[in-house]
Request: fold
Amino acid sequence: MLLLITAGFGLLTLLLLLLAPHIRRKYAAGGVCSSTARLDGKTVLITGANTGIGKETARDLAIRGARVIMACRDVEKGEEAAASIRTACPKAEVEVRELDLADTCSIRAFAQKFLREVNHLHILINNAGVMMCPYTKTVDGFEMHIGVNHLGHFLLTSLLIGLLKRSAPARIIVVSSLGHNFGWVRFHDLHSQGSYNSGLAYCQSKLANVLFVRELARRLKDTNVTVNSVHPGTVNSDLTRHSTLMTIFMTVFSMFVKTPREGAQTSIYCAVAEELHSVSGKHFSDCAPAFVAPQGRSAETARRLWDVSCELLGIEWD
Reply:
């Protein structure tokens, strides 16, 4: 009996290995951006571009001819990523700048230098993020998920919105997640001081991304600057490094999850697809419109989160 079980398990493993390419293509790889649009003369800013889908997005847009600015907390890793892009495409115009989204002083310094040295910004991709990390706070005392994933990008976008408007037509892409479906904005305890669950904190921040896009799109009406959010899919990247369970899942079921290149496709699609030139305030996954949870469609919650975010950051953004 033990021999039969062992043989059966071995046969199943062999079948999975043989069928892995087919399974990946049919069920895991997801949509592919088919646009051949060029970005010559365009300037792109991508946060968290040193690894994962951010790096793959930077590579693709650089190959299309864009000047790509990679905003990274770890400059050394950013330079390594930029070097690999240049190796793949010697003509790629990529540069690395330091940005720590967990520190509003770093964000302001980055934006100040950026505005002084860069004349146009056509595409902003708010890609960086943290996921399921232990309870920690940003330099400014915000819970890390809401601080980096939402507030950091909220502040960065507010500081660059004038340049985006002057560079119009322009696009903003915010990387959210399917996890927004399981999130609720806990206005009474936004920073999880009363209780903390890393998964719920992550989902709250991803819902905040969707709500930010909804309200920003309303405010950008008739400016020729669009903003949309994306769910990249379940991607095998180091974003899951803080969760042992997720790391094991990604390893064991790697054939069922996306590679970073596959995960970057929807961000790329929203950045370049000609048919999206006037589409704003929407959510995409697998290069197609995607479902938004009811709590992500609340205009009242979106406006309230906007006001709370401005208050926490000490800014006015009308």
